[in-house]
From TrEMBL:
Residues 318-444 form the Mur ligase C-terminal domain. GO terms for biological process: cell division; cell wall organization; peptidoglycan biosynthetic process; regulation of cell shape. InterPro entries: Mur-like_cat_sf, Mur_ligase_C, Mur_ligase_C_dom_sf, Mur_ligase_cen, Mur_ligase_N, MurCDEF_CellWall_CoF430Synth, MurE/MurF_N, UDP-N-AcMur_synth. This is UDP-N-acetylmuramoyl-tripeptide--D-alanyl-D-alanine ligase.
Length: 461
């Protein structure tokens, strides 16, 4: 964060100062929307959510070291009062970027954003100061908070950009105009809010490349026809990546080790180098190539990119997070969120990791699938059976029962159990576990199966 006085911030965001004894007091640390995350010298942004109103924690934030509160009303402690806190945060972030000059990288896609962002950050930070989105804080609040962590020393600013609706990426790129834009894929996440079809999702995701300048780079996945179709929507230079032989940044000689981790030869326009990923699942090759394409556009050489990818480790929880229990049971927690693409990738990755070991899938609903939801859940049930999982536990009514019915009806011999809720899933899975089992847990985040994964990963003595 560039140090700024409260008076300066008020001028930038159009705020009125309330209960501020010293307008010259300086904010020197990043902003936060959680009073527990406030740093001394920071700014607390009091946002109102569905269940918690940050204004109620203003005094706690000040006691924790915040210089002032960015608020929508006076809160009896030093405050910058604005009409809309979220808009004000965006204005402050946009102003900060006028005072520093990092390479701004925006990335989007239906699946794989957070993993790709984590891989890219680990490549870049080996070479220069890098600020990247924390976890999946990729929306209208998360992006400004990320930008406000940058300072004059920051060379690379890696911004994961989420899009739940058309127009979201136009807004985010307006706050932090990127010079490099990476589009991973077009899938079914948020499809009902974008118009109902993949072309609608592509229209929304393509807003990122439309925002790029002529001297920028649009990095497009050569293996996704909807992403390739965005080429005509940008004035930036196009760099293709993927498994396709036509991609300028590609993987050759892909192979999987005994731990279901990919190894391959990274090929770029300036050379090639071997990569051995630490993350499980063949789908991680595409994520790694996306990160490599950005690094290539930034001028890093293939050996440095490959070294960064090989050294990279999983940073964000709930995404194929592996816990090895002392009794030999392996829990694969992929319960941060779910859509058909990520569900298929996760099921395949866990099965590959298991090898000959017994496999159990604990699955809940995939949200936001609209009218296609029953068919998509049925497809997942068939995949569970086709992959020869030994046991399936579905959690909840409605769509999870479609998963169960499809697996049971397949004739592949999978043992199917249905339970009503997360607590029942924990109880049942605990009774079924045998030493050496591999357990895959996944659902959309609102289902709460992360609780199940954590409980199974920490057995009762």
């Amino acid at each position: 964060m560039i140090a700024m006085t409260l008076h300066e911030i008020a001028r930038v965001v159009g705020a009125h100062l309330h209960d501020v004894p010293d307008p010259g007091a300086r904010v020197t640390a990043p902003s936060a929307v959680d009073s527990r995350a406030v740093l001394p010298g920071g700014l607390f942004a009091a946002t109102a959510g569905a269940h918690v109103d940050g204004h109620d924690y203003a005094a706690v934030a000040i006691a924790g070291g915040a210089v002032a509160v960015l608020a929508a009303r006076p809160v009896c402690v030093p405050a910058l009062v604005v009409e809309d806190v979220q808009v004000a945060l965006g204005l402050l972030a946009r102003h900060l970027l006028t005072r520093i000059s990092p390479a701004v990288i925006g990335l989007t896609g239906s699946v794989g954003k957070t993993t790709t962002k984590d891989l890219l950050a680990q490549i870049l930070e080996r070479h220069a100061p890098t600020v990247a989105t924390d976890r999946s804080f990729n929306n209208e609040l998360g992006l400004p908070l990320t930008v406000l962590r940058a300072d004059a020393a920051t060379r690379y600013l890696v911004l994961e950009m989420g899009a739940g609706r058309k127009g979201d990426l136009t807004y985010l790129t307006g706050l932090a105009p990127p010079r490099i834009g990476l589009v991973l894929n077009v899938g079914t996440a948020h499809i009902e809010r974008m118009g109902g079809g993949p072309a609608d999702v592509a229209q929304a995701k393509g807003e990122l490349v439309e925002a790029l300048p002529a001297d920028g780079f649009a990095l497009l996945n050569a293996d996704d026809p909807y992403v390739i179709g965005m080429a005509g929507r940008t004035q930036a230079q196009i760099l293709l990546y993927g498994r396709s032989p036509h991609a300028q940044v590609r993987a050759e000689n892909v192979r999987m080790d005994q731990r279901a981790r990919a190894q391959f030869e990274l090929v770029t326009p300036t050379g090639r180098a071997p990569v051995a990923l630490d993350l499980i699942g063949e789908h991680q090759v595409s994520n790694a190539l996306g990160a490599a394409a950005v690094a290539t556009a930034l001028g890093l050489d293939p050996a440095a990119i490959a070294a960064g990818l090989t050294a990279a480790r999983r940073r964000s929880g709930g995404r194929l997070e592996i816990t090895e229990r002392p009794d030999g049971i392996t829990i694969v927690n992929d319960a941060y969120n779910a859509n058909p693409e990520s569900m298929r990738a996760g099921l395949r990755a866990a099965k590959a990791l298991a090898g000959p070991r017994r496999t159990i899938a604990v699955l809940g609903a995939m949200g936001q699938q609209a009218d296609a939801s029953p068919a998509r859940h049925t497809d997942i049930g068939r995949l569970v059976a086709d992959l020869h999982y030994d046991v399936l536990i579905t959690v909840g009514t409605g769509d999870p029962l479609a998963i169960a019915h499809a697996a049971r009806s397949s004739g592949q011999g999978v043992t199917v159990h249905t339970v009503a809720d997360v607590a029942a899933a924990i109880t049942l899975a605990t009774t079924l576990l045998q030493p050496g089992d591999v357990v895959f847990v996944k659902a959309s985040s609102e289902i709460g199966l992360a609780t199940c994964a954590r409980a199974l990963a920490t057995p009762t003595p």
